[in-house]
């Protein structure tokens, strides 16, 4: 009975979002496992020749942000014609992508949270320093509380990157020749907020963080609030673009 209910019009958008999230995590599971293995085995290999004083999971988590944006944009760009051809409305697809984004961001955020905590124990046992490279110096995550507080914001950041990728993917499909140009202003805003969360230097182009200089005095709470507002705004923008996409007939 539950399966039949999921196929009804009011529910299928949510079940589709859940299905897409599950399929995406399953499809990329070996990539994710490889990243986890590298995050833990990499420092062990490097310790043979150099001192370990930086958190590997910080860099793993940053790379996952860009990967999240790529997944959001790529999936949306590919799903629009297929889902519409299968009878799914654009409004339903926008809801499904919202569910997908929430679940994907929560799953990766939980993984990085757990990874940083496990790394804290791992580094402690090995006598290493779990540090994060900032703009001016290395900040050491000295306690479990420091590590947990540092890791807790990753789900929100992943959601912002997912929403950014969704806007770019929807715009690239909606305006095929020019939509991708939204990459530059969106990247600048999201990356600058990311850079300002901890006053760190996330992996990515330095020019994209140019707005971060105006956020130096905001404080972490205000930056996180700004990140949440931007994520919500980008999600709304992605939905508006998606439901406005014209139906195109297949080319012969």
Automatic annotation (TrEMBL):
Write the record's keywords in alphabetical order, separated by commas.
Answer: Membrane, Transmembrane, Transmembrane helix
> Is Membrane tagged as a keyword?
yes
Indicate the transmembrane segments per the record.
27-46, 66-86, 93-118, 148-173, 180-198, 218-242
Spell out the protein name for this chain.
Answer: Uncharacterized protein
Species this protein is from = Glycomyces lechevalierae
